[in-house]
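Possible regression after last week's pipeline update?

I re-ran a chain I had predicted before the update to compare outputs. Posting the input and the new output here so someone can diff against the archived version. Not blocking, just want to make sure nothing changed silently.
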Amino acid sequence: MKEQREKKIFLNGEFVAEADAKVSVFDHGLLYGDGVFEGIRAYGGRVFRLEEHLERLFDSAKAIRLTIPLTLEELTNAVLECCRINSLWDGYVRLVVTRGKGDLGLNPASCPKPTLFIIADAIRLYPPSVYERGLRLHTAAIRRVSSEALEPAIKSLNYLNNILAKMEASASASDESLLLNEQGCVAECSGDNIFAFKHGELATPPVSAGVLPGITRREILRLAREEGIHAVERNMTRYDLLVADEVFVTGTAAEIVPVIEIDGISIATGKPGSLTQRLLLRFRALTRSTGPLIFSSARPVAAEAEQQQ
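New output (post-update):
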């Protein structure tokens, strides 16, 4: 039996054992969801689009007046070292910055020092059958939080809107929930961006519709244009999805997953489309050749052993 390796967490400038990775119950990230985060993927010993993820993290932090206690270079090095120390070859990095420890009041002025931690671990993806079969979506009754209330481009720790939508999907025996905004236009899914393809045009909702500007979303728009496809950001309704030739969702964890049904209505033939499959293959090839190297030499023995389990 494989010996369980002790996971190390980067917490406020040092690596600590998982059991010792603790934050205060007075941390405003816990009390109020006051903070920002990024989910980042590692593929084949490289961290995919690390610079873009960190840029979005700094932008999100700036928008809520939160100072990240490391420079961009220091944070880059911390992410890579966290992957290295945990022998992560393929996996997922969760980077979180909270307002920090304060009092029980809302005012962030009581939090003099932000909390920053990084977790590098394996990731549980959708099983291969989902990519072959496709997802079934449920249109959530709950609406996406208005852009006038909370800017969707901020990747904050306040995810209750998404969680409630995800619970609706589970209650309806669906794989994922589709969120509409207050105007009835398509926004995104509980944890993914959404695309529709019809008559040679690939469309996805704009950020103004209540959408997180996903890193994978950006890559798919670029890859589609390289394929000669007219790829646009525009407002869409649920009808646009139902009559599409292909629908798929994108995200850092999900990559690209076909959608075959929405609210019991089949999308086209009810099977994953050829464009979706083509873009997925191109995206996966890109992930294996892009991003800073975690290890300076060959794959470490520990990572090799864990991959074979």
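Follow-up from reviewer: compared with the archived run. The chain has a mean pLDDT of 93. Marking as no regression found.
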